């Protein structure tokens, strides 16, 4: 199963195995990764699943959608070129080892 | 079968849905280290309901996608989940500690009790409700039944034009099924929303082929003794149907609260910290009602994931002796095909509304005001508006109504202090 490395707000790392097809958000909330609030459960309605995807993996996670783009503009934490809503990234074997940093505020 | 071991829980949560799970997980986040037991009457691991009328009903999500947490998470967190264990009886002393009895006879002693029993579908008070082909939608088993029915149905009648009814209408019509929504009021969502939103939604649904019977009451569901084949309206007309979804709202589940003699008025009455009328018993989520934020003397029940989570956080903080969390901003969403509705605040009690949008039928935001101050907004496909309003309300700020009518001005630039 592909793994996700979460850099948590307190500086520690948590490595979680993902079910292929599940989103990064799904994987995080079900395993209780702190800081991923994800109140809407992936409906792209809350912008509380904000992460920063590590540079190496950015080209692999696809484009930011139009709606996601608007949500990210107004997310609670600062938006950078690495910002994504983690509910919009589905895990594949290709993404094994992907490193994401949990946004400091959701 | 579960073993009949007498256990003692620091906190017993009755009801293992969105709110109950959040009470347990927040307690652990706050460092609470006594045993936590979560009894749920459904024979499933705790799951999310919103997809039941959306992706799950559409076949785009499966049961595994609905899980709120993995079993490993609960195990590692020391949260004992007991699915299929309905709490049938409970006794509580003045301090809040007591004993609960589960279906099948198991008992759990506890120091503190949290009721998180949710709500059940409001039954349609007419004849014919028991006919085959008449469905409700609250749990995953309901959703699976409805999904199977939709695969073979030809004519669908949805009784109730609320969010769940509209979400199902959006899906049924997309499959080419003849779909009719019967609504008692003369427009959709009339109790909470202003007319522009009602009309926007009705107009888009009509384009999708959904028909509406507004200001219409159902008198009877007619069948051949086994299967439903018509819905009879109060004016006598018959709407042919081989699938009827009754979506006329939910009734808070208050059986245990009533047994305990708690103050129950439609729902279990709680304060901002989710305390019931018994100082040692808490209640959270869809089973509760509380003071309306704008209408003095009125009680309001808020059925949303946000409310379930925030009430749960408040109760957990009180139970763990932690600081109460900041007062939350109520919010809600609904997905209907390409329409994403996002609602922030509580609109009921508004005395003025302002509409903004770029082109009819594409997007819309309605801002609601009371006494000159912003209290809520409903957006369709305008996520930036929603997030700006949510932020303004969270900071106790407002947005001037006149400039807000210009859809080109970002609302976040208009946030100001209250007068
Ligand atoms: C189809 C559908 C779509 C929805 N869509 C949205 C949406 O898009 N956005 C949104 O914000 N909200 C939505 N909601 C509302 C949201 O799901 C609820 O507000 C939320 O689930 C409430 O959580 P709760 O824990 O209070 O209740 P529930 O999730 O209902 O959980 C209560 C649990 O307690 C159990 N129980 C009851 N009595 C007992 C007992 N005596 N002993 C043990 N267990 C008991 C119940 O069976 C249930 O499993 C939707 C709801 C439904 C049904
Ligand atoms: S979980 Fe809500 S936007 Fe991602």
How helical, in percent, are the residues of chain B? 10-25%
Find the CATH topology of the largest domain in chain B.
FAD/NAD(P)-binding domain
CATH fourth-tier homologous superfamily of chain A: Beta-grasp domain
CATH superfamily of the largest domain in chain B: FAD/NAD(P)-binding domain
Q: Which CATH architecture of chain A is right?
A: Roll
Mean pLDDT over the residues of chain A: 95
Strand order in the largest sheet of chain A: 2-1-5-3-4
Please count the beta strands of chain B (DSSP E, at least 2 residues each). Answer: 28
| Assembly context of the chains | heterodimer
List unreliable stretches of 5+ residues of chain B. none
Biggest chain pair interface:
A-B, 22 and 30 residues
Briefly note the structural class of the backbone of chain A: alpha+beta
Average pLDDT across residues of chain B?
A: 96
Query: What is the CATH architecture descriptor of the largest domain in chain B?
Result: 3-Layer(bba) Sandwich
Q: Report, as a whole number of angstroms, the end-to-end distance of chain A.
A: 28 Å
Runs of chain A in which pLDDT lies below 50 for 5 or more consecutive residues are none
Rough outline of chain A: globular
Helix/strand-derived class of chain B? alpha/beta
Tell me the count of domains of chain A: 1
Short structural summary:
Chain A: Residues 2-106 form the 2Fe-2S ferredoxin-type domain. The complex is a heterodimer of chains A (106) and B (419). With 106 residues, chain A is of the alpha+beta class.
Keywords:
heterodimer; A: about 110 residues; alpha+beta; 2 helices; 5 strands; globular; B: about 425 residues; alpha/beta; FAD/NAD(P)-binding domain; Enolase-like, domain 1; 3 domains; seven-stranded mixed β-sheet; five-stranded parallel β-sheet; 10 helices; binds flavin-adenine dinucleotide; binds FE2/S2 (inorganic) cluster; flavoprotein (chain B); FAD/NAD-bd_sf (chain B); Ferredoxin reductase (chain B)
Question: Explain this structure to me?
Answer:
The complex is a heterodimer of chains A (106) and B (419). Chain A has 106 residues and is of the alpha+beta class. Chain A has a single domain (3-102), classed as Beta-grasp domain (Ubiquitin-like (UB roll)). Chain A has helices at 24-30, 66-73, and strands spanning 3-7, 13-17, 50-53, 83-85, 98-102. In chain A, strands 2-1-5-3-4 form a 5-stranded mixed β-sheet, covered by helices on one side. The longest helix of chain A has 8 residues, at 66-73. The radius of gyration of chain A is 12 Å and the shape is globular. Chain A starts with a strand and ends with a strand. The mean pLDDT of chain A is 95. By secondary structure, chain B is of the alpha/beta class. Chain B has 3 domains: 9-120 and 251-320, FAD/NAD(P)-binding domain (3-Layer(bba) Sandwich); 123-248, FAD/NAD(P)-binding domain; 338-417, 2-Layer Sandwich (Enolase-like, domain 1), CATH 3.30.390. Chain B is built from 10 helices and 28 strands. In chain B, the strands form 7 sheets. In chain B, strands 1, 2, 3, 4, 5, 6 and 19 form a 7-stranded mixed β-sheet that branches. Chain B has a 5-stranded parallel β-sheet with strand order 8-15-9-10-11, with helices on one face. A 5-stranded antiparallel β-sheet of chain B has the order 22-23-26-25-24, with helices on both faces. In chain B, helix 1 packs parallel to helix 8. The model of chain B has no long low-confidence stretch (mean pLDDT 96). The A-B interface holds A 19, 22, 26, 29-32, 34, 39-41, 43-47, 67, 70-71, 73-75 and B 25, 29, 48, 50-51, 54, 64-65, 67-70, 72-73, 77, 305-306, 309, 331, 333, 335, 340, 342, 381, 383-384, 387-388, 391, 412. The complex binds flavin-adenine dinucleotide (FAD) and FE2/S2 (inorganic) cluster. The site of flavin-adenine dinucleotide has 36 residues of chain B, from helix 1, helix 8 and strand 22.
């Amino acid at each position: 199963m592909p793994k996700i490395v979460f850099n948590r707000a307190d500086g520690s790392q948590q490595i979680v195995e993902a079910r292929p097809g599940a989103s990064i958000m799904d994987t995080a909330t079900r395993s209780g990764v702190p800081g991923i609030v994800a109140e809407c459960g992936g409906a792209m309605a809350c912008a509380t699943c904000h992460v920063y995807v590590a540079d190496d993996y950015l080209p692999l996670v696809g484009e930011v959608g139009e709606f996601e783009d608007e949500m990210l503009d107004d997310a609670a934490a600062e938006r950078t070129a690495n910002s994504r809503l983690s509910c919009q990234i589905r895990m594949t074997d290709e993404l094994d080892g992907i490193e994401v940093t949990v946004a400091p505020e959701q | 079968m579960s073993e009949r071991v007498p256990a003692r829980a620091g906190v017993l949560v009755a009801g293992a849905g969105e709110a109950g799970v959040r009470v347990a997980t927040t307690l652990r986040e706050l460092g609470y280290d006594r045993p936590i037991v979560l009894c749920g009457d459904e024979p499933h691991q705790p799951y999310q309901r919103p997809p039941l009328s959306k992706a799950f009903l559409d076949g785009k999500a499966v049961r595994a996608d609905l899980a709120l947490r993995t079993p490993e998470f609960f195990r590692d967190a020391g949260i004992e989940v007991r699915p299929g264990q309905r709490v049938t009886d409970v006794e509580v002393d003045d301090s809040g500690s007591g004993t609960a009895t589960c279906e099948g006879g198991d008992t759990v002693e506890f120091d503190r009790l949290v009721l998180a029993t949710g709500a059940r579908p409001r039954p349609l008070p007419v004849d014919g409700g028991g006919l085959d082909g008449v469905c409700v939608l609250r749990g995953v088993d309901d959703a699976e039944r409805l999904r199977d029915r939709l695969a073979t149905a030809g004519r669908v009648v949805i009784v109730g034009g609320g969010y769940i009814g509209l979400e199902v209408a959006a899906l049924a019509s997309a499959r080419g099924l003849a779909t009719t929504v019967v609504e008692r009021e003369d427009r959709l969502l009339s109790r909470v929303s202003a007319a522009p939103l009602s009309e926007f939604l009705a107009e888009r649904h009509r384009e999708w082929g959904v028909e509406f019977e507004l200001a219409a009451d159902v008198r009877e569901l007619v069948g051949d003794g086994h299967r439903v084949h018509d819905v009879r309206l109060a004016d006598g007309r018959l709407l042919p149907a081989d699938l009827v979804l009754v979506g006329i709202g939910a009734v808070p589940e208050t059986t245990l609260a009533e047994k305990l003699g708690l103050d129950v008025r439609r729902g279990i009455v709680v304060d901002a910290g989710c305390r019931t009328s018994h100082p040692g018993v808490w209640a959270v989520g869809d089973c509760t009602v509380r003071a309306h934020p704008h209408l003095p003397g009125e009680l309001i029940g808020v059925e949303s994931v946000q409310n379930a989570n925030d009430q749960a956080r408040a109760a957990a903080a009180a139970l763990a002796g932690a600081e109460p969390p900041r007062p939350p901003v109520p919010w809600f969403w609904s997905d209907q095909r390409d329409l994403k509705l996002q609602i922030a605040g509580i609109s009921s009690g508004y005395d003025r509304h302002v509409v903004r949008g770029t082109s009819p039928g594409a997007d819309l935001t309605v801002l609601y005001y009371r006494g000159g101050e912003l209290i809520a907004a409903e957006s369709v496909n305008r996520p930036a508006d929603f997030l700006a309003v949510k932020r303004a309300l969270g900071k106790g700020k407002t947005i001037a109504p006149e400039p807000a009518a210009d859809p080109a001005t970002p609302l976040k630039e208009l946030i100001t202090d209250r007068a």
